[in-house]
Amino acid sequence: MRILSSELKVKMNRQKRDRTLTINPAFLQEIKDSNLTLWKTVERLNAACREPREPKVVLGLLVPLLGELREALALEFALEESYGYIEVPSAAAPVNHHLLQDIHSQHCRLFLRITELAERAEEMQFRGMLSEELPALVNEVGAFELEFKDHERMEADLIRCSSPLGPGAGRTDTTKGTRF
Ligand SMILES: [Fe+2]
């Protein structure tokens, strides 16, 4: 039984190695176009960081907005990983599969980062904010938004390059317009 179990593990590992990620460009674009809450939250967060207000007011805005952004990103990444990214046999790997794997792995890092920022804002509010901590938090929120914007731009490029009509096919650029 133990031998069978080991053989099964080896087989499963081999099958896993023999598969790689690609994207379904139509689904990935559809997910991005549908999650309007995410983009509205990012816009409101931008405004909260940019507009001059009393520090206490700024923190009072950041706490719920960072929590909302964490929830919106959890939904976005879960949908993208369930329907936008798909596994295919390695023999059918796209030429850019290493880049694709790297972009996919950014989801985890981005989600851990927004969770950390949201928890820090809550903690600052709970224990009474120290005035020197808020500028650092605002700067880090700005840096996070830029990192997320880069991620979206890379996925937009993936979608464009993976479209059946090829690069340049009609699409919505999620990194332009009112977003960010
Ligand atoms: Fe993504």
How does this model look, in words?
By secondary structure, this protein is mostly helical. The chain has one domain. It has six helices and two strands. A two-stranded antiparallel ribbon has the order 1-2. The N and C termini lie far apart (57 Å). 18% of the residues are buried. Bound molecules: fe (ii) ion.
Overall mean confidence score, pLDDT: 84
- Flag low-confidence runs: 169-180
- The ordered string of helix (H) and strand (E) elements is HEHHHEHH
Helix content: over 70%
Helices, by number, come to 6
Gross morphology: elongated
The biggest sheet, with number of strands, parallel, antiparallel or mixed sense and barrel status, is:
2 strands, antiparallel
How much of the residues is beta strand, in percent? 5-15%
Bound molecules: fe (ii) ion
Please give the order of strands in the largest beta sheet.
1-2
Radius of gyration computed on alpha carbons: 20 Å
The total tally of domains equals: 1
- SS class: mainly alpha
Features:
180 residues; mainly alpha; two-stranded antiparallel sheet; 2 strands; binds fe (ii) ion
